[in-house]
Amino acid sequence: MNLPSWYKAYCTPAKIYFTIAVIVSIIQLFSVPIFMVFVNFLFAIIWTCILGWLCKKGFSSVSWFLVLFPYVVMLMQSLIRAA
């Protein structure tokens, strides 16, 4: 599959975050006002650039932390509520 060159230039955490953000934005098209989808997608683009910048500066572990931390917290909350 031919991916755009700007996408290939980003590190793995930025790619994962951007891919998830695109999927969420598509799902949001059916449930929230279009303006909110636009705002969320704009935030995703900015955050992806920040994650890519962190990787280029040698802070890929920080980038991974910023990508995974919200999901770890949500998982912990779900496990606590289920108990």
TrEMBL record:
List where the protein spans the membrane: 12-31, 37-55, 62-80
Keywords recorded for this protein, A-Z: Membrane, Transmembrane, Transmembrane helix
State what protein this is by name: Uncharacterized protein
